[in-house]
Amino acid sequence: MLESGAMLTIWRRHTAECPHRSKGRQYLKCNCPLWADGYTDGKRTLRQSLKTRDMARARKRAVLLDSGDGPVYKPVGDAVKTFLDHCKSEGLKDATIRKYRNALDKLVDFCETEKQDSLQELKAETLDRFRGTRKLAPITAGKELEILRVFFGFCMDRDWTKENPARRIKLPRNLKPNEVIPYTPAEVTAILMACDRVGKRQFERLRARAMILTFRHTALRIGDVAMLARDRISPDGEGWRMFLRTEKSGQSVFLPVPKHLKEALDRVPPPVGNIDSRYFFWNGTGKQETHKGHMHRLLQAVFKKSGVAGAHAHRFRHTLATELLGRGASFEDVADILGNSPEIVRKHYGKWSAARQSRIDDLMTQVQVARDQAVTKDERLQ
User: Fold this and answer.
1) I need a surface site. Which of 13, 33, 169, 309 has the fewest CB within 10 A?
2) Is residue 4 within 8 Å of residue 50, measured between CB atoms?
3) Measured between alpha carbons, how far is 259 from 281 in angstroms, rounded to an integer?
C-alpha cells in the first residue's frame, strides 16, 4: 500500500469491471477510485473516498485529511456550487447570479487544468495566473476580482479555507469608467422612427415604440421595462403616474407619465397567448429570462435600424440623469429616480454638461450682482 502521512493509507476501490480486481486493493496501477483509511493504534478510525482516480490529487487530499488542524477538504467545484445555491436562496437577482457563475466556472476550469482542485491549494499567485489567462479589460478585471473576494469570503466563513487569497491582490486604481454619452434630441427621434421599421408585424412595432418611450421618460432598466405590469400605472388627478419602487424607508417612488407615453402603452396589443395578462409585454408564461432575451433582441434591432452609434437601453438612464442635473436637480433627487445611491449618481452620471455650466454661470452672476449692489449701498451711506 501507499502511505500518506503517518496515519492515512491510500488504496484503490476496484470496480466490478476492473481486470485487476482479484489482486486486491493494494494494487494501485489501475484507474479505479481512490480511497483513504486512517488508523490510530492499529484501529481504523477513518474511511473516506478521495473523490478522484488521479494519484497526485489523492496524495494532496490525503495530506489535508491527515493534518487534522486545518480547514476541511473542499473541492473548488463543490464550493462554487454551494456558493451559487446560497446566492439563489438569498434572493439575488438572476443577472447577478449569472455574473458570479460566469466568473467562477472559469475558475473551476482553470483549476482542473492546473490540477489544483481544493480550496486550500489556491493562493494569491494561483489567482494571479488565473487572472492572466482571462485577458479582460481593466474595469472588467476589477469587477471579477470583487467576485472572487466575495466567493472566498463565503468559503472562509464556513472554514473551508484559512484565508481569502483574492484580498492579497490589489484592485486596479484610478480607472476611468466607460464614457457613456447621453442621447441628443435628434438621436432620440431617430430611434423612435426606427421603431416603425422593425419586425414583420405592427404588434412588434407598437411594443418597440412603447418600450423606447418608457426608457426615455422613466430611465428604468431593460429588465424592469420588459416586465412592466399594468397596475404600476395609476390615475393621478387628470394625469397618470408610474410606480417605480419602494425605498428602504417604506416610501413609494412615482414618476408622472406623459400623455404620449400612456397612449403608446395603451396601443400595445395584449401579449400573444394571454389576452388577460397583467403585463404590457409578457404573457406571464415561460421563464422571465427568456422573455427578457426576446425584448433585448427587439431593442437591438431598433438601435441598429436607427443608425445611432453606440445606442443601447442604458444610455437613456444617462440621458435623463444629465437632463435632471442640468436643470438643478440634486444628486439625491436623481438617485431617488434612478434607484441608485447619490455616490453612484455622482460617479457615473454627474458628468459636466453645458446646461450645468450655464446654471452655475447664472448663479455666480446673481451673487456678483448682489455684491455690487451691497458695495454701492455702502458707498451711498458714506
Assistant:
1) 309
2) no
3) 19
Asked if residue 358 is part of any domain, the answer here is no
Q: Do 342 and 201 have their domain in common?
A: yes
CATH code for the domain of 247: 1.10.443.10
Task: Give the Cα separation of 25 and 27 in Å (integer).
Answer: 5
Sheet with strand 233-236: strands edge to edge: 233-236, 239-246, 252-257
Q: What is the pTM of this model?
A: 0.66
3-state secondary structure of 251: coil
CA 298 to chain centre: 22
Q: CA–CA separation, 165 vs 125, rounded Å?
A: 8
What is the C-alpha to C-alpha distance for residues 366 and 362, in angstroms, rounded to an integer?
Answer: 6
Which long-range contacts link 126-134 to residues 24+ away (Cβ below 8 Å)? 126/165, 127/165, 127/166, 127/169, 128/169, 130/106, 131/169, 134/106
Are 318 and 310 in contact by the 8 Å Cβ rule? The answer is no
- The confidence band for 5, taking pLDDT boundaries of 50, 70 and 90, is very low
Per-residue pLDDT of 269-304, as tens digits, reads: 999 888 899 999 999 998 888 999 999 999 999 999
* Confidence at residue 6, expressed as pLDDT on a 0 to 100 scale: 45
Q: Kindly state whether residue 372 falls inside one of the protein's structural domains.
A: no
* 83 shares a domain with 45: no
Strand, coil or helix: what is 244?
A: strand
Query: Range of 25's domain?
Result: 2-67
